[in-house]
Amino acid sequence: MLPCVIVVFVLLSCACGENPAVQVILTNKGLQYGKHEGTGWIQEKLEQITFPDISGSVDIHIGRVYYTLSGVTIKKCDLPEPSVEFVQQSGLTTSIAGLSFALAGEWRNQFGVIHDGGSFDMAIFNIDVTSAVKLGSNAGGRLSVTSVNCKASVGDVSMQFHGGASWIFQPFVKYFKGHIIGIIQSKICPEVEDTIMNLDHHLQAMNVSFDVNKVLSFDVPLTGDPDIEPSNMKLGFKGEFHSIKTHAEPPFVAQEFVLPELAGYMLSVGLSEFTLNSASFGYFSAGQLQAFINDSMIPPYIPFRLNTSAMGGFIPQLPKMYPGLLMNLQVNARDAPMFSFQPGSGVLDVHICVKASATESNGTQVPLFTLYIDSRFTGKMMIADGKLKGSMMLNNVTLTLGSSEIGDFKTDALENGIKSGMVVVLGKLNAKLGEGIMLPRMKHAQLVNTVLKMQKGFVGIYSDVQILQTDRSSYLSTSYL
């Protein structure tokens, strides 16, 4: 009964021969949890199934009886928990032993000129099913599921007819129950294989590229086949952001990294610095990393105003040349900001260009000077209380005069002023980061017991998964026999 593992694929879902920027490890603990939750879901769904009519005939030595069993529904199901295992470099095997059903429906018989009908009760005992599937990836980078093998057997069937001339036909049940067993047994594996095929169609229809917002898209095709071991399954994804406008490739590639499995967790996710840097490059190539700043935009808690008088403390000649004028700053990233991860912390390098101008009384913009600012920040991230939290600190700021329409001036004082302003802004930012943001909830599940570890080149997130019971009925609608 393979459908019990569909839960696992829905949670994961989403080949190129490139280093994956995002890695996912599903452990055996996660597989077994998905199997357990899937068993309960199947138990609920089985009771809603209506079977197709079963028709046939049997020779009872005194003639041939033609019969039809219709409106067959499950009244009770004894569903033992299946066994599900990873198969080395192949896929999954799932098996169930001792499955039994209590059924009810209507019967119609024809024996010569005799036509009769009524109701019946049926019990099917000791159904055993074993199925093996191969997991792979297609050319579009989507996970594929293929049936490799299926075996099914039915132990026994008992039937009790009611109504009509059932007392005549009841003694002959022993003659045609073997035929019923054969019909039921022959339908199990084709239905299991249809279920696997439907799951594969579902996976092939899934998007591997998403528009995150109006600026960025996110590409997450698989970079190769799943790497399957007896204890886990590893998936590698491209994990690259692009500008929707330019779709320009970043001038760097994803580097290889090894996501270690942390014992005791169902799911591990590795997010490389390449993924964050591709997002940064996407914004940069789309022309989004720029801002226009005037005095009205400076927060009141910053003790500085953006005008030529206030700037006179840093550039003495400025208020003499342009007294009492408001100023504007055109800020642009010179390059895409770049992230790098080290054990326990991350580094962000930012390089910007600031073009300053003054606004004369008639609205004319007068160019003043251009500054290059290079800054480095160190940050930490953690997960606590179900929230992503963090902190940032300023490592260094250097300011260089690029060009000037007001003559040369020393930048030391201005550099110190910028440092002070950044410290104030970081204080406000860290207060927000300390409060944290709630971890995103998946459609059918939520992450619990989650920890985050910053490693060289990537961030590792380790978590258990809790399936949301209210959503369980919406995984997939499937018939089984």
UniProtKB/TrEMBL annotation:
Residues 26-246 form the Lipid-binding serum glycoprotein N-terminal domain. Residues 261-463 form the Lipid-binding serum glycoprotein C-terminal domain. GO terms for cellular component: extracellular space. Residues 1-17 form the signal peptide. GO terms for molecular function: lipid binding. Keywords: Antibiotic, Antimicrobial, Disulfide bond, Glycoprotein, Immunity, Innate immunity, Secreted, Signal. The keyword Glycoprotein applies. Disulfide bonds join 150-189. It comes from the Eukaryota. It is found in: Secreted. It holds the Pfam family LBP_BPI_CETP. Its main location: secreted. GO terms for biological process: defense response to Gram-negative bacterium; innate immune response. The N- and C-terminal barrels adopt an identical fold despite having only 13% of conserved residues. The cytotoxic action of BPI is limited to many species of Gram-negative bacteria; this specificity may be explained by a strong affinity of the very basic N-terminal half for the negatively charged lipopolysaccharides that are unique to the Gram-negative bacterial outer envelope. Belongs to the BPI/LBP/Plunc superfamily. BPI/LBP family. Monomer. Homodimer; disulfide-linked. This is Bactericidal permeability-increasing protein. The lineage of its organism: Eukaryota, Metazoa, Chordata, Craniata, Vertebrata.
